[in-house]
Amino acid sequence: MSTPQWQVGIIGCGRIAGILDFPGSPKPITTHAQALDQHPQFQVAAVVDASLERRSQFQQIWQVPRAYGSLSELLAQEQLDVISLCSPNPWHYQQAVEILTASVPPQVLLVEKPVCQRSEELAHLLQLHRIVPTQLIVNHTRRFDPAHRRAAALLQSGQLGSLVNGRGIYYGGWLNNGVHLIDTLRLLLGQELQVMAVTPSPGGRGTDDNFEVQIQIGESVVVLEGFDEQYYQLFELDLRCQLGRVCLQDFGSQIGIAQVAINNLGERVLVPQLQLQGLASPNCSCDRGDGGLSIGSEDGILSSGGRFTNGSGHHDPPCGSVRLWPVPLRPPPLLKRHELEILRLSHQRWHPCSYPTLARQLHHRRSREKSCVCSARQWLPVSL
């Protein structure tokens, strides 16, 4: 195992930080501590929490060398490469400012969403980002996920035609989870969003209310609906285009892609073409074996049963391009017959918190072979 190169501090020892998790957990990676622990180039060197009991428990679980009761203590004592800001939402802005203006700021500041709660706070953070060397990233995990990036490349390629309309569902408050839908829309469609109407919705979480929000994207409208999580949690997005449809279900862990085809009665129907597994891994799965889908690379092919095999017989995620072919039905005139290149991805493991991405950025910066560029405007969610 390689020696850790990047020293990390975690601010806030709550659930998303990892206090209910443990090293080597068999569950999917959902906490900062777990993602850092499983990546050999990062080491959690210090944590901060106002509660002595909580920071001591966190320190014991994750074997963290040092713990502090305040952010100012940590900044005075530590020189860290990365800081993960996992404190409660109302503290994000002020603590981010304190970190960015420290005498020795980190190379990367990864902030849990929402990065702030007011438009003037966002403007100040953007101003600081332009003048400080620290790279600021907001942890909208779907931006780092290969399946979501493939879906974005497909939608922006125009092969499914223009967006007709869409609908999204979220739970747990606008600032807590609604911002995820906003950022996912920006990622998938690559366009700016304009808020047209806002009405209250049932549910929410504490003082963070749910809203139904009408978003205009070009000439199309997408409605985002808040759902009361007392019944159950829902996070879905359905984008309906002229020549196909992209559906994100189960929080984005399943991404279904369908294309228009003409059936034997001359009717335009949707036929499933591709099912991507999101968030947990870069694996692609397929429900079809009739020649409608082809995923391939130099190392292997997707068999008719929908399982990827390489020369050794192991089942690995596909490396290289994804090719989406029209289904074996007579396509409408606008549907092209040639193959669609969605996105070329390297064969690597991805963590929800994207610490491999940070490792590459830090390596490029330290070696001076490549500058690390991560515009805050790309990552920060739009504000109502």
TrEMBL record:
<protein>
    <recommendedName>
        <fullName>Gfo/Idh/MocA-like oxidoreductase N-terminal domain-containing protein</fullName>
    </recommendedName>
</protein>
<dbReference type="InterPro" id="IPR036291">
    <property type="entry name" value="NAD(P)-bd_dom_sf"/>
</dbReference>
<dbReference type="Pfam" id="PF01408">
    <property type="entry name" value="GFO_IDH_MocA"/>
</dbReference>
<dbReference type="GO" id="GO:0000166">
    <property type="term" value="F:nucleotide binding"/>
</dbReference>
<dbReference type="InterPro" id="IPR000683">
    <property type="entry name" value="Gfo/Idh/MocA-like_OxRdtase_N"/>
</dbReference>
<feature type="domain" description="Gfo/Idh/MocA-like oxidoreductase N-terminal">
    <location>
        <begin position="7"/>
        <end position="140"/>
    </location>
</feature>
<dbReference type="InterPro" id="IPR050463">
    <property type="entry name" value="Gfo/Idh/MocA_oxidrdct_glycsds"/>
</dbReference>
<keyword id="KW-0560">Oxidoreductase</keyword>
<dbReference type="GO" id="GO:0016491">
    <property type="term" value="F:oxidoreductase activity"/>
</dbReference>
